[in-house]
Amino acid sequence: MQGGKERTGKKSGSAGQWVMVVPESVTNLPKKAGSGPLFTRLRNPSTGQAALYLFNSDAHQLFEIKAFHEEYRSWFIGQAVQHDGRLFFVTPMDPLFLVLFYLTRAQKEQGKFQPLDQILVDEEFSSCPMLLQCTKISQSIHHIVDKKEISGRSFYKYSEEKTLKWLKKKIDQTVKVLKDHDVCVGEKVQSATFISGERLNSSSEEDYIRYAHGLISEYIPEELSVVLAKYLRLPQVISPPAEAAPKKRKLADAPVEAEEDYTKFNTCDLKNKKAKNKMSASQKALAKVDKSGMKAISSFFSSKTKASK
């Protein structure tokens, strides 16, 4: 696989193994002894929940770990069977997203300028300060903060205006990649639509921006995602009202009136109606006769009552 290698990594605290696809830079030998790749848990910048990440040697680059899992899958590793059939993908991640989570939290709690080493403090995740070792932080922190220098020391404060501009650049870059690779986006796009060997792509500019916004929103808090959508001037999507389920007809003896047909009676009623219309002249005359006091014809064929002895 180009740009990556399949490696197996030991699970901490267990005898199992993982099968992972990682960039070659992760497996480079560390410059210092004892400073190899480190698996650790950090806060997911979107949800704030624990997630698994990887620092490369010397902790200069952060990687996120995604697991592809299907039931009833296993691996053959050498002469052994690995029962954990998950496949882990390790991809580079901008650590600024994780720093952004702590900056927005500090803004809500204190709203003042602070050193980064005081902002990136988390009692539940001891590896959080390692983010400051990432090269990307020192190079890009100015995109999301206001900065002050006091007595040779730097103090930082979250800037929503700068952050929105930075995120818009991320959106624009993502849109460009989607277009360059002819990725179909939008609600009406099918997984594979081909005509004469060419794929149709009717995605609009808004479709691309909205799709890119959804991807970036996986790395920012929900509140910021809403603000970003307004900043991008994305129209609010209103879900169409759910169509009312057709009422179930109750079973009944009475004829059912059709909704979209002018045949308003059951077949048996039509036959009865036609039969009445086809009466002969003698039948019509008999129908006009006064039948009061007459016995029904069936009474002449009833069994006679035996006389008592």
Structural key phrases:
alpha+beta; two-stranded antiparallel sheet; disordered N terminus; 28% helix; N-terminal domain of TfIIb; 309 residues; 6-stranded mixed beta sheet; 8 helices
Topology:
Layout: E1 5-10, E2 17-22, E3 38-43, E4 50-55, E5 62-68, E6 75-77, E7 80-82, E8 87-93, H1 96-109, H2 116-119, H3 135-140, E9 145-150, E10 153-158, H4 160-180, E11 194-195, E12 198-199, H5 205-216, H6 222-231, H7 267-277, H8 281-288
Parallel strand pairs: 2-8
Antiparallel strand pairs: 1-2, 3-4, 4-5, 5-8, 6-7, 9-10, 11-12
Condensed summary:
With 309 residues, the protein is α+β, with helices and mostly antiparallel strands.
Kindly describe this structure.
This protein is α+β, with helices and mostly antiparallel strands. Among the domains are: 1-93, N-terminal domain of TfIIb; 162-191 and 201-231, no CATH class. Helices cover 28% and strands 19% of the residues. The protein contains eight helices and twelve strands. The chain has helices at 96-109, 116-119, 135-140, 160-180, 205-216, 222-231, 267-277, 281-288, and strands at 5-10, 17-22, 38-43, 50-55, 62-68, 75-77, 80-82, 87-93, 145-150, 153-158, 194-195, 198-199. Residues 1-14, 190-197 and 248-267 have low confidence and may be disordered.
